[in-house]
TrEMBL record:
This is THUMP domain-containing protein. One of its GO terms (molecular function) is RNA binding. The lineage of its organism: Eukaryota, Discoba, Euglenozoa, Kinetoplastea, Metakinetoplastina. It is found in: Cytoplasm. The keyword RNA-binding applies. Residues 392-428 are annotated as: Disordered. One of its GO terms (biological process) is tRNA methylation. Residues 397-408 have a biased composition (Basic and acidic residues).
């Protein structure tokens, strides 16, 4: 049984998510996986060429598309780069031109990332003409099931034959898609990075065409998934997508993301995964800030303690500011994900115990105790007085003693049954 190399593309900066899914899905069949640091978005897998392998690869949800890999070439650094590339391919067509000899029709697709003096369309046209000349097979723009790929990523060119028709990441929008929709493979990565799992209630308060909610509903058919959008038209479109896909575990409702309590009970949601409006074309800074502040305040009410928000944002400063200043959130991750020409940042924040507690903790000390259990803390003023007493105790060398005996590192809140004691000086 021979080995075959496949090139799998996703959005740049989530290659690690793709690689781990490839390893899980292909399991023992994958001999080697490789993330190429010089080619953004690419994972290469060397795999046993068994019949089921293509089906397994097409089931990978963090992939945009998969190709049987023919060659990786350097892009000629000349003014006629596309023509020079075609000449280079045709010097050794057996090893460089993807094999489409059995196709009835074909078309060439090019994804281009980086700064170049040509367009994707130029590559598609020039390589298409050369392949047609060589294989004597007609090209067809619509309906061709054989897709020869020539992807230009920076100064590298990846050549191969796509092993499926439509892009895998077009799977969730059979009826309706918005301009602002993200791809399902990005939705998969957001859910994965948020640690969303079996049995958890998920909410997307800016659901749009439903990408994130539908992706979660496919993966976790027994979970409860709630999608909200303020537009009736959009909610109808997302419902149509869910119905066509036969998904029955998604509730889609018209509502405002600033008032999530109108849809779900307090502390009933485990995870919010969403991409709110980015305010690229419209939306003043203040409007976006106001929206993010309102959404975070509302999320605070419906999310359980320990629950997470995964939020993909372009103008993220206001979101981060509100997270930090409220004291209710701990930032777990900030990771840019390339989507088209933009680099939005995926924030993952976790809902932590108590506002007053965390604000004060940030100022001076982490204290042992739990305000909710009535450890003598009722108001901000009384809490501050205790701080002074505690600080005095620390200065005089009073011994630390945690109620539950757990050592706590860094910024984590300290929980326990014991009296409030100074644990660790804080700097932020
Ligand atoms: C960027 S789109 C979401 C796209 C979605 N993730 C998808 O893949 O289709 C943002 C959505 O938020 C909705 N929206 C804007 N403000 C809102 C608000 N205050 N409450 C609820 N939805 C809102 C818009 O109608 C829009 O559909």
């Amino acid at each position: 049984m021979g080995l075959q190399r496949f090139a799998i593309f996703t959005n740049p900066k989530i290659e690690d998510v793709l690689e781990s899914e490839v390893q899980r899905v292909l399991h023992a069949h994958a001999h080697k996986t490789e993330v190429r640091p010089d080619i953004e978005g690419l994972v290469i897998v060397e795999v046993e060429d068994v019949p089921a392998v293509c089906d397994m690869l097409c089931a990978i949800r963090s992939a945009h598309y998969v190709m049987r890999l023919t060659a990786i070439l350097d892009l000629p650094q000349t003014t006629d780069a596309v023509q020079a590339l075609v000449r280079h391919i045709m010097e050794d067509p057996v090893n460089r031109l993807p094999d489409i000899s059995k196709a009835e029709f074909f078309r060439v697709r090019c994804t281009r990332l980086g700064l170049h003096s040509f367009r994707s369309h130029d590559v598609e046209r020039e390589v298409g003409e050369a392949a047609h000349e060589y294989h004597k097979i007609p090209a067809k723009m619509r309906g061709a099931t054989t897709i020869l790929r020539v992807d230009v990523i920076g100064d590298k060119v990846v050549l191969g034959v796509q092993i499926h028709g439509e892009e895998l990441s077009k799977r969730l929008h059979p009826e309706f898609i918005r301009d602002a929709s993200i791809r399902p493979n990005v939705a998969f990565a957001m859910l994965h990075l948020a640690g969303y799992g079996e049995g958890e209630v998920l909410m997307d308060p800016f659901v749009g065409s439903g990408t994130i909610a539908l992706e979660a509903a496919v993966r976790f058919p027994n979970n409860k998934i709630i999608g909200i959008d303020r537009s009736d038209r959009v909610v109808k479109g997302a419902r149509a997508n869910a119905e066509t896909l036969g998904l029955t575990n998604v509730e889609l409702t018209t509502a405002n993301a600033r008032n999530l309590k109108s849809v779900v009970a307090r502390s009933s949601v485990d995870c919010i995964v969403t991409n709110p409006p980015w305010g690229i074309r419209i939306g003043k800074n203040e409007e976006m800030e106001d929206l993010y502040r309102g959404f975070l305040a509302s999320a605070t009410e419906v999310l359980k303690i320990g629950g997470r928000i995964a939020c993909l944002l372009v103008r993220w400063e206001a979101f981060l500011h509100h997270c930090r200043s409220s004291g209710r959130w701990v930032v777990k991750m900030a990771r840019p994900i390339r989507t088209g020409e933009l680099n939005p940042v995926l924030f993952i924040v976790e809902r932590v115990e108590d506002t007053m507690w965390n604000n004060i903790k940030r100022d001076i000390f982490v204290l042992v105790g739990d305000a909710r259990k009535g450890d003598g803390v009722t108001t901000l003023e009384s809490f501050k007085k205790q701080q002074v007493a505690v600080a005095d105790g620390a200065a005089s060398g009073e011994k630390e003693e945690a109620g539950n005996g757990h050592e706590v590192e860094g910024e984590e809140a300290v929980e326990g049954e014991g009296a409030m004691r100074p644990r660790r000086r804080f700097s932020q």
